[in-house]
Sequence to fold (627 residues):
Amino acid sequence: MTSPTTTAITTTSTAATVTTTTPTTTTPDTTTPTSTTSATATSTTAVPTATTRTASATASWSDLVSAALLGTKRRTPPVTARAGQGVAAALLDAAAVSTVRRRAALRPAPARERTAPAPADPRPPLPPAARRRLSLLLADRGGTAGGSRRGTAPDLTELLPQWLAAAGERGYRAPEALLPALLDAARARTDLRPAALALAGPRALWLARLNGDWKFALRGIGSPTAVPDSDDPGSVRRRWEEGLFAERVQLLTTLRRRDPQAGLRLVRGTWTTERAEDRLMFLDSLREGLSAADEPFLERALSDRSRNVRATAAELLSALPGSALAGRMAERARSCVGPDHIPGAEGPTINVEAPHECDAGMQRDGVTTTPPTGRGERSWWLGQLVEAAPLDGWIERFGGRAPAAIVALPVADDWRTELHDAWCRAAVRQRDADWARALLGVPAAPARSAEVAPVGSTRDLAKLLTVLPEDERAGWVAEFIAAHGLSDAFRMLGVCAVPWAEPLGRSVVDALDIARDAGSYPWSFSGVMGLAERCLDPAAADRLDMLTAVTDEPEGASPGSGGYWSEAFQRLVGTLRLRATMYAELSRPEDPASGTGPDADRTAGPDPATETAPDAPRSSASDRTAP
Fold:
């Protein structure tokens, strides 16, 4: 009998050698093979002909691939077909021979060291319902259909940061199977990285070493596991000297929170060898735990060759009211601003005489000589002096008057806006609540909206509000909204603690209801509505149900506004209920008050994230803009 012909092909660096073993037919019990070897790769068996092999040897792999992709009718392949063979078959034969030659020429690479196992994470796993919720949030993080209308569906992409923060506060670890999706989300959104890396834990770093797309996790931003134990000075020193820049910033910030002087010693040890941009970032990190012990180092930084470093050092020193720089600035500011008793006036008037020059001493202490476009030099220098002067010094300067009484004094020669703006910046820098309270005043005053932010003012009310305690801040914003509406309140709402206090939440909802009654479209307030979805107390959902009904449109209202407002309030209520469900899912399974456990999914109500119309459009990024 005859056995099938077998062909072995080997390749060296100079030529292809084909060894063909062809059995001869004898009796059924005997088969004697004969072997023929030829350096020119000739054969009479079912191997490609010499012509085909010669053509395939000379044709490049890219030519063969191009011909296969375009098709033999559009491009003639660089091969010659043997008798009775089609061009396409000849092309495939040539590709097969070329593939074998390419593979045979490869040298086996040495085996790599086996990857170390992933480190253990002792934190408890997520409850099953919370795990499923995280999977849904990560799957929807890219958003879906765009458009100006969001429909009634909650915006899951805006709930992911809250979910991550809540899960991290409860000490859970991320499920192993969801770590890749979690790292992809953190890669796409930098605002997610601290919470995402904290939840992912040490296994995120292990995965990041195996995938270059996740290398941001190795920089240590937001990952507590990336910071060495401060009780091991050698490990801390190695990380400081050998780590990436972002790792060093993270290390310094963490050390300043634990031991401010240990962080200062790190900076001081390598200060003279650092680049200017690195010195600036390290100096800025000293805001954490800033104290009088940092003053000698900051005073030396005033002579740094980098202007930005000098300015930052001066800013930090001015935040220390007892520093030598603060004393120098106070003396300069007192020579420019003081009481002036005008005959016939009920009280003193504040007289202002701006500096006529910016001398070398002022420049060394951080005063910038060149003003921004549209600002005069003298007013620019005055603002910097008053901003850096200790606020307590003004009480003595004006005869022991309280901050509110000083702010109420008239200011001569139209210097009021410039002076009050500088005091606002000083209150933020020195975290002085009494001065912040005096400069903010009573929010419900009839003309207060224009008073707190007059024309030409550079003051930032949102920053000024951060100086007040959380409850007082929320109360002030609530009164401001009740008196003046939402048009100027967006940034103020952004600095209020979450969830909003009940008076603030009520003021926001009432203002939105008033806007609906006025007949405007809801997307004019999409920024505030988005904040309400994320910041209102979830317990308010049932109380807001009445707002979801479609109301009669008032005369002169925008066409269809009633239906659009109904959709917006339905989305608000649905998002609040979804947030409540999320927090319940994250509760400990053993907590009987949480309503979670093995039977929780069977007793829980419908999920607001899924109880929406099939054709309800999803939100887009454009819907989250400020009004």
Summary: DSSP finds 29 helices and five strands in the chain. The chain has a mean pLDDT of 81. The longest strand covers residues 16-25. Strands lie at 6-11, 16-25, 31-38, 337-340, 349-352.
